[in-house]
Amino acid sequence: MIETIDLQTELEQLTAQLTGDMFQDMDIKDQIHNLEMKIKGIKPVDSHFDCVGCGS
């Protein structure tokens, strides 16, 4: 539970850094995507990889 709170805090901090410029935000968006998958406990279907399988 504490880890989820820490991840949520990190997610909020990353979201606050978004500029609206797609190219500048690309790395931040990738980090946000990875955190959201960790928080939700999601992996790509039929994949034992955490996120490599979806190409992110």
Word description of this protein:
- The protein has a domain at 1-11 and 24-41.
- It has helices spanning 2-16, 22-40.
- By secondary structure, the protein is mainly alpha-helical.
- The chain contains 2 helices and no strands.
- α1 packs antiparallel against α2 (22-40).
- The model has no long low-confidence stretch (mean pLDDT 82).
Summarize the model shown.
The chain is mainly alpha-helical. The protein has a domain of 29 residues.
Features:
flat, 61% helix
Q: Could you outline the blueprint of secondary structure elements for this entry?
A:
Elements: H1 2-16, H2 22-40
Helix pairs in contact: 1-2
Q: What share of residues are in beta strands?
A: under 5%
Question: What is the alpha-carbon Rg in Å?
Answer: 12 Å
Spell out the helices and strands N to C: HH
Count of strand segments: 0
The oligomeric state is single chain
Query: How many strands, what sense, and barrel or not for the largest sheet?
Result: none
Return the structural class.
Answer: mainly alpha
Q: Tell the overall outline.
A: flat
Low-confidence stretches: none
